[in-house]
Amino acid sequence: MKKIILSIEGMTCSACSNGLEKYLNKQEGIKQASVNLVMATASIQYDEKILNIENLNEFVRKAGFKSLGEFKEINIENNKRKNKKYFIFFTILAVIFMYISMGHMINLPSLKFIDINLNPIGYTICLFIFAVLFIIYGYDILKNGYKNLIHKTPNMDTLVGIGVLSSFLYSIYSAILIIQGDFSATHNLYFESVVMVIYFIKLGRYLDGLSKDKTKEAIQELVKITPDHATIKVNNKYKEVTIDEVHKDDIVVSKPGERISVDGIIIDGRAHLDESFITGESKPVNKGIGEKVIAGSINYDGYIEYKAEKIGKESTISEIVKLVVEATNTKAPIAKIADTISSYFVPSVIIIAILTFIIYLILGYSFSSSLIVFVTILVVACPCSLGLATPLAIVVAEGLCASNGILVKKSKIIENAEKIDTIVFDKTGTLTYGTLKISSIKNYSSISDNELLQIIGSIECKSTHPIAKAFTDYLKENNIKTLEVKEFGNVSGYGIIGKVNKQKYILGNSKMLKSLNIENIYEKDEYDLAKEGNSIIYVVQENKIIALIGVNDIIRQNAEDIIHELHKNKIDTIMLTGDNKETAQKIAQDIGITKVISNVLPAEKTKVIKDLKNENKNVMMCGDGINDSPAIATANIGVSIKSGTDIAIDSSDVILTQNNLNSILKLINISKKSVKIIKQNLFFAFFYNILMIPIAIGLLRPIGITITPMIASLAMVISSLTVITNTLRLKNYKKAHFK
């Protein structure tokens, strides 16, 4: 199965995206398709043995839309300029049209050749020309409405198309009568309905477009971080190239003040780099040979040469953009409710409009009066605001998360995060920095401490566990060379194994001793080290304990404040660690966690999460290691920090790129605010339709309250603006809470 994200042109409402989604999911070879209205994209998982991108593009075309190919970048400016020019031009035409068609009602001066009284034929022809221009302007609406009707997925455009064409055709009939001499038919011209309905719908969409563009700006800013050009070194000569011309393993040069062009690894030089846009660390990081650099980082003060490792779609920035865009193409459960309602709502409105039209004729109203009511119902019931209510809020929320260093992989996380009542934390690398230092050595062997640490460090060099770094750092700081290690292996949950100088060494926790049937005669030493907050590593040579190493960690900044804040929000916290009980209790006590589950294996971590879920708890698991990944995948929401291993990141729903636990609080707060906004939006959308449809039908006609298609289209715009304005309050929430 292959996955692709296509850029789609021509979607205007939730019924459009719904119709396309349903149509794609019906096609053979497509496993799953999800369409996003706000981002104008379709995420499609398909069998590449059956289909290719040309087939997918053809499916989109047959559904009534246009595929712009694979999503590459967010291009706001070009469309914005084009739409603005068209909108200004037709705004001027709409004003002129209203003056001509209605100016006589308030005795405004008019030109004789288009005066309704002096030259009704000229007046009619003039209005007809304007109506044709606006029909052309709104051709996309009519086309989409027709195609969706053919595919049995009628949408907002279908409602508008039927209403506008009904008014236009009836007005043409009246125009023919006028040309034939029946000047009384000028009162049956409804070209203004055609013109103003299309204009107000285009106004709404223009405003919608501006709001959607704003939601994309955070993602576009990420793309702009990477420079357009790079300097590469070829045969000891410098050559400036575009970013697309940089290939893997090229030697790229960065001078003070320049941005890093691609992800890579330093091979020469040293510099302070600002990576705050990814890590959240405000202080520049001093990096030298062998250390990685991220595209977009700012080189403050040094000359470095680095080998290009990740370019194009593989770069860190591209991966972040891809994750955010993919997240917007998944649907929150609350969005599916609105989509379902919309799919039933549109055909229901068409039926109501037809029945009302027939009833009006039966009651003795003229054809023209009945037609106006028919058109008004269709226009006023357009589910524009309903279509924007959820996806717009979700995209704004995801952009808000991205700008705060929280990468959400699925939209449902935005809705579900507020329901979390229990958060389970791994200890090492999550509640602590995982920046471990060797604090104590209990050496029971005949070799020196340095020789012992050289052996241990050589084996640990091959491990990805955070504890390994304490030993590799020790070797580096003391200029101790690593020894050759053979038969290295990882014993999940217990430790690691390797041969050095033909001797077999096993490094791990006290559980490892039990599995090897080795008597632990150093429990008191372990207890004393653990009381001081050390993680304990037993060193076994063949079947004999030769050392006990104490390694200390540093608690993450603000961890205590964050745990306290979570407790204030009535969220339970649990520490879940493979470390020994004494060390875990010491760390937990320092930061305020009361429940600790220690000495657990990876499988046992998963069981703990399952047990909590069986107690009807909504569980978030936050970790960073390989041993955390099954538990992360099992939790209702799995969270990994960016410094974690690839497998932990892959199995998680949320990635904290700033390695800051405060991001968990931000995610929960954004979720609460977003769900509240979505519920308000849905209320406004439903309330509008519940209020306006009865008025359009004419139920308030006895007390003199009626509306025309023009007023109906204006009301529809106001409804959408209400939803847009309410949604954009999320941006103000950012200013108020995340400074």
Describe the structure.
The chain is α+β, with helices and mostly antiparallel strands and 739 residues long. The strands form 5 sheets. Strands 14-26-25-24-15-22-23 form a 7-stranded mixed beta sheet, with helices on both faces. Strands 6-5-7-13-8-11 form a 6-stranded antiparallel beta sheet, with no helix packed on it. Mean pLDDT is 81; it is low at 735-739. α3 (77-102) runs antiparallel to α4, α7 packs parallel to α13 (391-403) and α19 runs parallel beside α21 (581-591). Among the domains are: 229-314, Calcium-transporting ATPase, cytoplasmic transduction domain A (Distorted Sandwich); 406-425 and 557-657, HAD superfamily/HAD-like (Rossmann fold, 3-Layer(aba) Sandwich); 437-552, Calcium-transporting ATPase, cytoplasmic domain N, CATH 3.40.1110.
Question: How would you summarize this macromolecular structure in one to three sentences?
Answer:
This protein is of the alpha+beta class and 739 residues long.
Shape: elongated
CATH superfamily of the domain at 406-425 and 557-657: HAD superfamily/HAD-like
SS content category: alpha+beta
* CATH overall fold name of the domain at 406-425 and 557-657: Rossmann fold
Whole-number mean pLDDT:
81
Assembly form of the protein = single chain
